[in-house]
Amino acid sequence: MKTIKALLVLLLTIVAVTSVNAQKLHPLRKLQLAEMAISQLYVDTVNQQKLVEDAIRGMLKELDPHSLYSTAKETKALNEPLNGSFDGIGVQFNMVEDTLLIIQPVSKGPSEKVGILAGDRIITVADTAISGVKMERSEIMRRLRGPRGSKIKLGIKRRGVDELLYFNVTRAKIPVYSVDAYYMIRPRVGYIRIGSFGATTYAEFMKAVDTLQTQGMRDLIIDLQENGGGYLQAAVKIIEEFLQKNDLIVYTEGRAQRRMEYRATGKGRLTKGKVYVLVNEYSASAAEILAGAMQDQDRGTIIGRRSFGKGLVQRPIDFEDGSMIRLTIAHYYTPSGRCIQKPYAKGDQEDYAMDIEKRFKHGELYSADSIHFADSLKYQTLRRHRTVYGGGGIMPDVFVPLDTTQFTLLHRQIAARSLIVNATLHYVDQHRQELKSRYTSFDDFYSNYTVPQSMTDSIFAEAERLKLKGYSKEECDKTLPMLKVQLKALIARDIWDMNEYYRIMNEQNRIVQKAVEIATK
């Protein structure tokens, strides 16, 4: 009680003094006093940690849309995909109803080493049931992951085996790949899809290049659709492979950050051959750095739709408890001097988040004529002096409109309800061995496999049972062609990997096919 009274006297004294000369009260001191008063004098018990975190979030909310605070747990989850690895048991999985189904064990990973197979179901973890108990996915992940070198006992249900099988798995470093797929999409034309830019992206990219060059690649398609960015340095290292010595890649500059330039070293291995970079409205940040540099240096043709428009640089500020602030400290600029950050009002994150929706409504995704740039945003590329624009994303050299007929309303509804994914998981689970023995290679599967009608019929029957919006016989007929393609791609993914998934889906992707058309003229 005496401590609280003393604190109250101190607070009242400070308030009295500062009321005489309020200008001497530093904002940081004011914030500290407010927290002290609340934590010591407020009528109910308060969580001091949450008070401070909410205050930090409140401050950042009044800045730009990309400055943010993350707790230690959130920071770890954010960094794992970028760091290129995490510690775990090494399986690709999905949830079928309330059971964890292993799609593929990671090659040479800890689960594969002890004999766990694709199609196995994890029933127990450390003798605790995780199947049939409605456990949250996040809780299951928490139980499976753990420090490298630690052991975990898994109870496995395997098709054709009555009793539960037990495996002791030693957790290990599990790689996270950012290059989703690479293959020869046409003779002499290679294709590489980059999902994000992380610590291992450059090494993955060059490994893909080496493989494709041995297969006769001369020209290259780099697919950055839906790539939300990541590490700037990873994008810079890839761009260097295409440019001449001292060519400007990107520069950053801010109020307290002096101009910093990134230039090519001149040691690139890909300075010859045509390059096509694919973007859409979800390509952002580091993906836009790559596209912008290739466009401004007239080194590559940009194909697709206007990119997201994130031209702000964040610096991580780490706290001792593992939490972090990602604070915007600068803008980045393409070689021609473009700042491609789309407009935003400080503190209005809702309006910023609705930008893609606005593009839909304004018709921009369907027609290039709907996109208007002010003359003040005109810039010139550095070699061919073509006109390009700043002020909100990278506008492609070749515009490809969004095809609204490809995915019907019914298709979107059944996908949202996970009917497609679940049907695939059940089908592969029942026919895995049959498919593997019948189709000894992906090429054989691609040429000869047909999705059975019973599979699509069951999906449509479930859609009718759920009374999904847009369901009708006519809508089913329109949905069927693309549904079959997607099902075939998902089956290929579960039997092989993501590479095979994209090999099928890309034949229906209009942006990819436009690049193929131009590259093979």
The beta-strand count equals 21
- Into which percent range does the helicity of residues fall? 25-40%
- Structurally, how many domains make up the residues? 4
CATH topology of the largest domain: 2-enoyl-CoA Hydratase, Chain A, domain 1
Give the mean pLDDT.
88
Which residues form runs of ≥5 with pLDDT under 50?
Answer: none
Q: Strand percentage, roughly?
A: 15-25%
Main β-sheet: number of strands, strand sense, barrel status?
6 strands, antiparallel
Alpha-beta classification: alpha+beta
The backbone outline, from C-alpha atoms, is globular
Radius of gyration: 27 Å
Measured distance between first and last alpha carbons: 84 Å
Report the CATH architecture of the largest domain: Alpha-Beta Complex
Q: Supply the CATH superfamily name of the largest domain.
A: 2-enoyl-CoA Hydratase, Chain A, domain 1
Which CATH class of the largest domain applies here?
Alpha Beta
User: In DSSP terms, counting alpha (H) and pi (I) runs of 4 or more, how many helices?
Assistant: 18
